[in-house]
Amino acid sequence: MYIKKIFIISILPFLFLILQNSVFAQEEDSLLLQKISEIDISLTSFDESEEDLYMNPVSFQTFYDDLADDGNWIIITKEEIEKELNEGEGQSFASYYQEEDGLVYIWKPSAENTDWRPYMNGRWVYTTNGWMWASNYKWGWACYHYGRWWKSKSYGWVWMPGYVWAPAWVKWRITGNHVGWTPLSPKAKWKGEEGISVSSYKYESPNDDWVFMDKSKFIDEVDKTNTVPVKENSQLIKNSESVLDMKLENGKVTGRGPDVSDIEKRTGKTIKPRELRFRKEKGKSLIGEGIVSVYRERFKKHNIDPSTGKYHKIDKPKKFKKSPKAKKILKRIKIRKKNKIRIHK
């Protein structure tokens, strides 16, 4: 009896610590719920069944304004993009596009350096919609949950806006000890009925575009200090399995990545899926014990011009650079408009 009492007394501090952590986790989620209590129901009403990156029906003015201080906008032609992404299959550019339709705004971040790649400087969070990227950049709410990336030969890493939200737009590679990922390029066409899979997305990103990490560190912060040197990518890719399985489930895009049970085994930690909540306020992801809150853009739809049957787009960045081909097209459009005005006069 005496021994039992000593045992009970000895474990009391540990029981108190467990109870304290449990209460803290509940309080943490409670505070997080207060921050996101005003959930906008309209966030789930936007049609995400299909996305056209080149003839988008919504305004990207929020992107143009919010990202202006952290990088440069560039106007480029679709033909220039096609030339750079000349491998694989996916969304392509038809020859019937008029010159005005053949121009796209892309964004180059100031954060880029020689070793920089998208989906670094942040962490992976397991949610009810799969592995989600939680970026440390203030612009991460936009560029890691919307649109596509590719490494341009002319400009370096650039981002093309999109309007369908996803936990992350990436393709994975899995080995026995490592997890790798690379951003999906504009070649990845989103259709909710089909999703995006290894069989539908044939584009092969260059070896240097991948980020690899030891499975034991996968849920840690991702930066240069704990990722595999780029020179080792080729061998890892050669001995890896390609994983890409993005689908539309219950009105939300989900993405399969590394097997969570395998990551639990390698990290020695229990990983429970956090419930994904959308909020109105912009900013970084708010991560609680059982909840993760992210901002989701409320896009304004473009009106259709009845005379042409096309979307009437008036939004654009306040400042932007022009590619050589875009300069020529813009000059021709300007001359054409002047001639029209003279004719009407």
Give structural attributes.
4-stranded antiparallel sheet; 25% helix; single chain; alpha+beta; 345 residues; 19 strands
Protein described:
With 345 residues, this protein is an alpha+beta fold. It has one domain. Helices cover 25% and strands 25% of the residues. The protein has seven helices and 19 strands. The strands form seven sheets. A four-stranded antiparallel sheet has the order 10-8-7-11. It has a three-stranded mixed sheet with strand order 2-1-19. A hairpin with a 3-residue loop joins β7 and β8. The longest helix is centred in the N-terminal third of the chain and has 34 residues. The radius of gyration is 24 Å and the shape is globular. The N and C termini lie far apart (106 Å).
Gist of the model:
About 25% of the residues lie in helices and about 25% in strands.
Q: Count of helices?
A: 7
Could you tell me the mean pLDDT? 83
Instruction: Give the proportion of residues in helices.
Output: 10-25%
Quickly count the domains.
Answer: 1
Identify low-pLDDT runs: 1-9, 14-20, 22-28, 30-45, 93-99
Distance between the termini: 106 Å
Placed side by side, the strands forming the largest sheet appear as 10-8-7-11
Q: What is the number of beta strands?
A: 19
Radius of gyration: 24 Å
User: How does the overall form come out from the CA principal axes?
Assistant: globular
Q: Please indicate the percent range of residues in DSSP E strands (runs of 2 or more).
A: 15-25%
String of helices and strands: HHEHEEEHEEEEEEHEEEHEEEEEEH
**Major sheet details:** 4 strands, antiparallel
Structural class: alpha+beta
